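Here is the promised in-class demo. Please do not try to memorize the tokens; focus on the logic of going from shape to residues.
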């Protein structure tokens, strides 16, 4: 079947280049065209196929132009509606014609209806088996895809990548059998099993996909262990001892444990690739400072990159406070600096005079060159794109391609990683967890409040400020959006300034100049501002122990991880802190689940697990923007047992069957290994 250049482009957009790509382009769902149901038994929520006579057909002009028809049989009637239609569709439903109609029934104003149904002449032969529906793109029809996939099934290599003994051991059907069953389900197969992906054919495909991922990550890890990194062994421990003496608190047992893990990594000859995770307020920054001091004492430069200027500035303040008195030269680098200041900073970095460099994505600009970058610390690493993480690492590469020395890397995240995610996407990382909060930290009380009770809240703010406390009030947008009808930071600041007359109400948002933002934050830290109205620029890193009340306006509009991060801005002092989630009815089902999760738990791991359920791994990991779906068929929520089996088998195959590994990766991971590695 010849394809036009336009069709070729659409196919390539779906990642379909070779027969091997087509055979693993599997159905999203299946339609049951094997039977007809009486119109009277069609229920809302069902996909049905019915036959009947067209009893009525007209083009209505109000409330909008639409094509409306009614079909009926001896058992009942069903409305059909097209919001956009062509003359050919109008001809299909002329009054008196016998038609076959397929689509999802919904409850309409005048009873059951199908919107944009598929219509054909009645009386044709029924399908013998379920009809596959494939992922597609605009301009590429299902019949075209089916023909191309059928052609690929005739020419593609369907031989098995797994030996018989392995298939028997894990109870897997042969690959060819699984592929053919999914593209052309046998007549007796259960539609529910296929839809829920419980059928043995789906189990084989999910196992193969998870195994390929585990093999790829294990190879990436092996490759990293074969690479060289600077051996960071300080000649003396004076700097580290002085830093510990400067800290106004003792490290928790969990902090001491993760420090030992990180410092041991830095003294090995292969690159550290470690994820430091801990809930909001668990003390990751001081661990990063100790790691930085160790590397600097060993003669290396250290770079700390954060996703926002406010977060980067928080790191700068703490690092300068702890390390500058000990003689460590720290440089600040962001895009908002003047040209001269940026040039001076770049020269200090290139000459090696700058021992510690703190900044935003400005660190990865072409003009920035390091003299001896030995350690990279990425905060909130999932908020950087894959390319950005790689670009900073390349700044520390030294030597020829055949013997390159690459820097150690410490990734920090306040979003705990659920176990199944750690076993899959983070299998190449060593993970350190700070699993206890510093002493004296109290759990934050979370309250849900409808925005109709806002006046009660403002009265409570007055009482809180009278007790000498400070308050955050977070809004989701800076300027009014008619579409969302959201309260804005600017309007809220004005309203609160009037309601809370006599109190200092500040405003900070992303569109302010950096110097203005910095001044407002300094005033809030110093207590000169009592109520700070802000957008999510204060989501991470802001540390004001005296702030004891967090109000999140339109909480239903925020993601779960973001809500948890914002809640973590309070509860940093000795006072009991409260987070109020101010919401507007009606709530969507997902918004209701998010708010319930926030109300029910403050455990970051439980929040992360629920967030993964709601959003899926791509968005959770910060890789959604790449467009690459690493797991297309398996689910981390329902296939945890398969993940464990795949992980076990991957270790065995890598040790004893390299040919099997090559064959399996060749089928499943072409072009994706590098993406997984980062």
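The designed amino acids, position by position:
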């Amino acid at each position: 079947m010849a394809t036009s250049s336009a069709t070729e482009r659409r196919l390539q957009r779906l990642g379909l280049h070779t027969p091997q790509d087509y055979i693993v382009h599997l159905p999203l769902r299946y339609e049951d065209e094997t039977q007809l149901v009486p119109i009277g038994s069609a229920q809302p929520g069902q996909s049905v196929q019915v036959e009947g006579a067209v009893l009525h057909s007209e083009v209505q002009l109000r409330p909008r132009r639409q094509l409306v028809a009614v079909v009926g049989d001896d058992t009942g009637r069903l409305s059909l509606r097209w919001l956009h239609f062509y003359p050919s569709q109008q001809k299909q439903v002329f009054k008196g014609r016998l038609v076959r109609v397929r689509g999802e029934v919904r409850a309409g104003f005048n009873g059951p209806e199908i919107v944009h149904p598929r219509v054909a002449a009645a009386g044709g032969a029924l399908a013998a088996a379920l009809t596959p529906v494939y992922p597609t793109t605009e301009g590429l029809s299902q019949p075209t895809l089916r023909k191309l996939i059928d052609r690929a099934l005739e020419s593609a290599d369907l031989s098995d990548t797994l030996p018989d003994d392995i298939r028997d051991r894990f109870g897997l059907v042969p690959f060819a059998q699984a592929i053919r069953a999914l593209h052309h389900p046998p007549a007796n197969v259960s539609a529910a099993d296929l839809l829920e992906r419980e059928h043995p054919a789906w189990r084989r495909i999910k196992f193969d996909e998870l195994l390929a991922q585990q093999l790829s990550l294990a190879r990436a890890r092996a490759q990293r262990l074969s690479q060289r990194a600077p051996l960071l062994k300080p000649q003396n421990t004076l700097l580290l001892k002085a830093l510990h003496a400067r800290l106004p608190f003792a490290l928790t047992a969990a902090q001491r444990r993760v420090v030992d893990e990180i410092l041991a990594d830095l003294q090995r000859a292969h690159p550290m690739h470690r994820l430091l995770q801990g809930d909001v307020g668990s003390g990751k920054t001081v661990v990063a400072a100790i790691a930085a001091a160790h590397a600097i004492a060993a003669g290396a430069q250290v770079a700390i990159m954060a996703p926002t200027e406010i977060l980067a500035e928080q790191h700068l303040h703490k690092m300068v406070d702890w390390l500058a008195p000990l003689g460590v030269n720290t440089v600040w680098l962001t895009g908002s600096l003047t040209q001269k200041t940026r040039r001076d900073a770049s020269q200090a970095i290139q000459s090696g005079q700058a021992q510690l460099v703190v900044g935003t994505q400005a660190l990865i600009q072409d003009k920035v060159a390091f003299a001896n970058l030995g350690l990279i610390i990425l905060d909130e690493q999932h908020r950087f794109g894959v390319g950005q993480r790689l670009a900073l690492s390349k700044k520390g590469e030294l030597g020829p391609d055949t013997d390159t020395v690459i820097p150690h890397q410490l990734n920090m995240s306040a979003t705990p990683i659920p176990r199944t995610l750690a076993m899959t996407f983070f299998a190449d990382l060593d993970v350190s967890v700070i699993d206890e909060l510093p002493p004296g930290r109290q759990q934050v009380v979370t309250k849900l409040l409808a925005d109709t009770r806002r006046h009660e809240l403002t009265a409570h703010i007055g009482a809180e400020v009278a007790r000498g406390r400070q308050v955050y009030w977070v809004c989701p947008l800076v300027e009014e959006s008619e579409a969302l009808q959201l309260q804005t930071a600017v309007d809220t600041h004005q309203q609160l300034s009037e309601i809370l007359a006599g109190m200092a109400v500040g405003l900070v948002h992303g569109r302010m100049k950096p110097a203005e933002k910095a001044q407002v934050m300094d005033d809030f830290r110093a207590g000169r501002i009592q109520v700070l109205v802000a957008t999510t620029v204060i989501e991470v890193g802001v540390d004001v122990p005296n702030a004891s009340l967090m109000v999140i306006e339109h909480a239903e509009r925020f993601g779960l991880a973001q809500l948890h991060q914002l809640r973590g801005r309070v509860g940093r002092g000795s006072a009991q802190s409260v987070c109020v989630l101010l919401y507007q009815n009606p709530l969507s089902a997902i918004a209701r689940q998010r708010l319930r999760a926030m109300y029910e738990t403050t455990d970051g791991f439980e929040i992360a697990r629920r967030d993964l359920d709601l959003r899926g791994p791509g968005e959770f990991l910060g890789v959604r923007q790449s467009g690459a779906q690493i797991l297309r068929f398996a689910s981390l929520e329902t296939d945890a047992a398969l993940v464990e089996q795949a992980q076990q088998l991957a270790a065995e195959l890598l040790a004893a069957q390299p040919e099997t590994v090559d064959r399996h990766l060749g089928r499943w991971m072409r072009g994706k290994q590098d993406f997984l590695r980062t």
